[in-house]
């Protein structure tokens, strides 16, 4: 009998590099009695086309992790990359250009310029770079966010939810390698927050965007593909396909563990 031929899988090439990753990320503030270790040798990777939420107790280092990975704060030790570009190898000029061209930001406080229209706020990073927007892409983002009727309005004429949608459009306008969102629903009512989170979810699913979001809200984390949990500056757990209930249970477990540690 002739042996059946071995089935050899096709060569799919090397796996895609992550949108961002870090090795040995360490951030220390102060010295002596005031020394605080905000990040303690964290290794982390953010795959392309995925939505990652970062959670942890207050003071766990989640915002510090995002700021260091986004090039908004300098590491004490360790190395961070956006794509294949290492941040520590960049001078201030090149780091500014990388943040402008490769990174999108969505903050809790919107950070819109009050004298500019919604459209002018959306295209501002591209205007600063001297680049024209891809009109088809810009139209897609504007329409997906339902902003078309509000493009001529200034931020003061928009609701909080509309302002945050403008901020999301600005983050996406340059088609960045990665979007970092820091508590993007913190200043919004429940419906407006849900609308913003649903859009971030769709931007990943339908547009291939990569999103990293810091949040304290288990309901917000449930929109992500996975949740990373930090405690005391360390990455301590990860959850795939999260639900609000599972995330809440894990956060309660963290609180219980902290109480036990404090008693000991």
Q: Can you write the helix and strand succession as a string?
A: EEEHEEHEHHHEHEHEEH
Shape: globular
Strand order of the largest sheet: 6-7-8-3-9-10
Report the CATH superfamily of the domain at 20-112 and 174-263. Answer: P-loop containing nucleotide triphosphate hydrolases
User: How many helix segments?
Assistant: 8
Mean pLDDT: 90
Calculate Rg over CA atoms: 20 Å
> Major beta sheet, specifics?
6 strands, mixed
Ranges with pLDDT <50 over ≥5 residues? 1-15
CATH class placement of the domain at 20-112 and 174-263: Alpha Beta
Helix content: 25-40%
Number of strands: 10
- Cα(first) to Cα(last) distance is 69 Å
Q: Report the sheet-strand fraction.
A: 15-25%
Structural class, from helix and strand content?
Answer: alpha/beta
CATH topology of the domain at 20-112 and 174-263: Rossmann fold
What is the CATH architecture assignment of the domain at 20-112 and 174-263?
Answer: 3-Layer(aba) Sandwich
Describe it for me?
With 264 residues, the chain is of the alpha/beta class. Helices cover 37% and strands 23% of the residues. Strand 9 and strand 10 form a beta hairpin. The longest helix is centred in the last third of the chain and has 20 residues, at 244-263. The termini are far apart. The model is unreliable at 1-15 (pLDDT under 50).
Core attributes:
4-stranded antiparallel beta sheet, alpha/beta, disordered N terminus, 264 residues, Rossmann fold
